[in-house]
Amino acid sequence: MGASLGAVPNRRYAILGTGALGGFYGARLQQAGTEVHFLLRSDYEQVQQQGLVIESPEENFTLPQVYAYRRVEEMPRCDVVVVALKSTHNHLLPALLPRVLKEDGVVLVLQNGLGLEAEVAQIVGAERVMGGLCFICSNKVGPGHIRHLDYGAITLGEYAANYQVGGVTERMSQIAQDFTQASISIHLAADLLLARWRKLVWNIPFNGLSVVLNATTDALMADRYTYALAEQLMREVALGAKVQSRAIADNFIQEMLDDTVKMKPYRTSMKIDYDEGRPLEVEAIFGNPLRAAQAAGVQLPQIAMLYQQLKFLSDRTRAQSPEKE
Amino acid sequence: MGASLGAVPNRRYAILGTGALGGFYGARLQQAGTEVHFLLRSDYEQVQQQGLVIESPEENFTLPQVYAYRRVEEMPRCDVVVVALKSTHNHLLPALLPRVLKEDGVVLVLQNGLGLEAEVAQIVGAERVMGGLCFICSNKVGPGHIRHLDYGAITLGEYAANYQVGGVTERMSQIAQDFTQASISIHLAADLLLARWRKLVWNIPFNGLSVVLNATTDALMADRYTYALAEQLMREVALGAKVQSRAIADNFIQEMLDDTVKMKPYRTSMKIDYDEGRPLEVEAIFGNPLRAAQAAGVQLPQIAMLYQQLKFLSDRTRAQSPEKE
């Protein structure tokens, strides 16, 4: 059940959240000939009239006409519903997903963090949920205007109840075909939960410390104290993974550190959100992994401290300025 | 040996470091009739010519003439040598203390943090060292110009080799007399190490978090996440104390939290140093307690993380601006 998207020759996509991720991937899919429907909020007028503008080192292009919607009720039901909202807006999903998802369709959760597929499964059922991990540098620089900077690959994985290993299914291959046709690299992961924890190995230390210490990755890696702290935080992530029966090897941690040293100076997505006064995805990236470990009686004291520091900074930012998208 | 400062009717004081603490206490002692000799660096010319200016809610006063010195070689030997330098300058002490301390005199270490008396003992011998913990809000606002804001009490304790309990000695009472005459409250502590750890219960969370999170005490206590974090950090301090056989009760921690909630919004001394681009006393307040615990095989993970964050911020500040006093 739910292993294939059926025999339709052309799968129809919905993009919920037409920002840095959703705008880029959706535009690429449409450019490659796929039918894509975009849900927008504040950018609706602009996109409806002017379309989407994509800057990218690979190719700049404009889609003068897109299917743009302000209300989910006006959208057709889709085979693949891509959730690319900030996870801080996930309280909207119960009102959105049932209206736009085909009976035999699938929701593809492209958000960062842990446990988000389980939340979506409560709305549409576990058999209609997949996760995607985006390895991409991309920003929205204006209404309907996306600047893709680097990378872009997605790791796809099936969700199964309680994050049991989902294996590789027919519909994963079908979605991979659509993205590959749009020149997006796709990796198929048999174990979504393992992929999620592996991504946290990087996201937890660098998203967190970049905000708390007002720093780019190069500065954090050049200082021996924060280098050591990043490594300790990574080991706590591995401990959290172990609690959920997923193994992260020491040499994976060392590779992450080595790769980060070699990277160009990088401002993390959470730091960009913080600098722009936008809500931070603290619960998805920090709170959910902590609670998963605590439920099994395991403390992750340094991740817990980073979580508390981020909550303080995030609460203060929200107290100082009205919420932005 | 070393229990009394001898029969001289008037004890002679040296103040090493004529800043927020040393300037205030030294001026008060002189005003009350005690002979005080001040070692200065950048403020020497000003103080030599204009004296010391003290603003205080208790009494504003000026000492037009003080014994001011630029070089320790010109100072007379003193009964009590007060170390009120920033602990980041303690590498200067081996060149200073032997020149100014009387044979039967005592060094009074007024600095924040742990283990500083042991460093001084290596220079002058354990029997010639005492510690003093200052509970005071005071700033240097200009050359030879000190602004005392609130509080001022000192807890005095004898140092003994390896921080054995030193008891209450005759010379503690003698020094207490001099300060009491100058309207400074003095508490006599039989156990200096316990007093040091108890002070760290407040200093570690609030000095550290105020710098890392750019916050005053009221903001940290008003947010439930940083309130909880401060409490956890206090419990780690208590664990460090326990490693050194000193007990800090749970209700002492609760009192510290309650008192801090009631305090007026307060910018900690480390935050002021950070904002002014001055070196931070990270090793004395964080590094030494951590190493004491680690030497006994006990990890204090959240204090360790705060230490690493502060080292990063401190290193970056020093890289950006030349060292200030």
The overall average pLDDT of chain A, rounded, is 94
**What sequence of helices (H) and strands (E) makes up the elements of chain A?**
EHEHEEEEHEHEEHEHHHHHHH
Question: What's the helix count of chain A?
Answer: 12
Q: Remind me, CATH topology of the largest domain in chain A? A: Rossmann fold
Domain Ketopantoate reductase C-terminal (chains A, B): 191-312
Function (chains A, B): Catalyzes the NADPH-dependent reduction of ketopantoate into pantoic acid.
Domain Ketopantoate reductase N-terminal (chains A, B): 13-160
Keywords (chains A, B): NADP, Oxidoreductase, Pantothenate biosynthesis
Structure summarized in a few sentences:
Chain A is of the alpha/beta class and 325 residues long.
Describe this structure in words.
- Two copies of one chain form a homodimer.
- With 325 residues, chain A is an alpha/beta fold.
- Chain A has two domains: 12-190, Rossmann fold, CATH 3.40.50; 194-319, Orthogonal Bundle (N-(1-d-carboxylethyl)-l-norvaline Dehydrogenase, domain 2), CATH 1.10.1040.10.
- In chain A, 45% of the residues lie in helices and 21% in strands.
- Chain A contains twelve helices and ten strands.
- The mean pLDDT of chain A is 94.
- The interface between A and B is medium-sized, with 25 and 25 residues.
Write the layout of secondary structure elements.
The structure is a homodimer of 325-residue chains.
Chain A: E1 12-16, H1 22-31, E2 35-39, H2 44-50, E3 52-55, E4 61-63, E5 67-69, E6 78-83, H3 93-100, E7 101-109, H4 116-124, E8 129-142, E9 145-158, H5 170-181, E10 186-189, H6 192-212, H7 217-222, H8 224-243, H9 250-262, H10 269-275, H11 282-295, H12 301-320
Parallel strand pairs in A: 1-2, 1-6, 2-5, 3-9, 6-7, 7-8, 9-10
Antiparallel strand pairs in A: 3-4, 8-9
Helix pairs in contact in A: 6-8, 6-10, 6-12, 8-9, 8-11, 11-12
Function (chains A, B): Catalyzes the NADPH-dependent reduction of ketopantoate into pantoic acid.
InterPro entries (chains A, B): 6-PGluconate_DH-like_C_sf, 6PGD_dom2, ApbA, KPA_reductase, KPR-Related, KPR_N, NAD(P)-bd_dom_sf
Organism (chains A, B): Trichocoleus desertorum GB2-A4
